[in-house]
Amino acid sequence: MHRRAQRWLGIVCCFVLFILVFLSLHLHIMGRFIASGHYELGLLFFLFPGAVASVICKGDKVVKPLVGAMLASPLCLLIAHLFLPTSRSLWQEIAWLLSAVFWSSLGSLCYLLFISFREWVRGNKKTDL
User: Fold this and answer.
1) Structural domain boundaries enclosing 53
2) pTM, to two decimals
3) How many domains are there within the chain?
């Protein structure tokens, strides 16, 4: 793969997945608890875009998913207020999207923790021999 395309792959991946998770939550696709009005639990689904984008990235496994989520959030806000029926005010929607960006970044940090733990276990196995 071309190096320039490889740099943008993590950003584009997180951008697309963030929008897909946002739309699925707002269209009540992911579970009954969201349909009952508890959007806070749905924020946990935003761990997925950050973790997947972090897997795909070569370097900057936290920054690139964060950039993708930050670029997707204004588009999601625009989609929510132009095309989707919303029961929240603009400020509540902005706060909800900012917390979704946080959860997406937390997903990439969880992947980094997993990698670090895996390397630590491998290092301990080598020293035990």
Assistant:
1) 3-128
2) 0.85
3) 1
